[in-house]
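Late entry, written up from scratch paper. The run itself happened at the end of the previous shift, but nothing got recorded in the book at the time, so transcribing now.
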Amino acid sequence: MEDVFKRTGHGRLQVVQDGQEAIDYLTGHGVYSNRFKHPMPHVILLDMKMPRVNGLEFLKWLRRESPNTLHLLPVVVMSSSNDPKEVGEAYELGVNSYLIKPINWQEFQERMTALNLFWSDHVEKPVIS
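Output as recorded:
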């Protein structure tokens, strides 16, 4: 995914390893306190199967408990699961879209390129404080 973002030249990708690290990043805790080095994202690409805090738990925190205007951040779920229950829960928790990760590498790259261009160049995003 990082390679695709670098190649398109649109947007910057910040990667965290789990849901708790995502919360720490967004709230600027610990190593993420420097906003110049760790800027606020314009959109979140969310994996549903993360350790410590999974995707649904992260969404609950983001939409219901996060400080300031963090709850306005757009969220795109990238999942290998098309379980209708999980898809429904994600939309109930306010995701902006739910995409299934293609198995084919070429299709995955094309989808990431399109997603990157859409959110970088074509969408007005909220100001987050």
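The helical segments are 2-8, 19-27, 55-65, 84-92, 105-122.
(Scratch paper discarded after transcription.)
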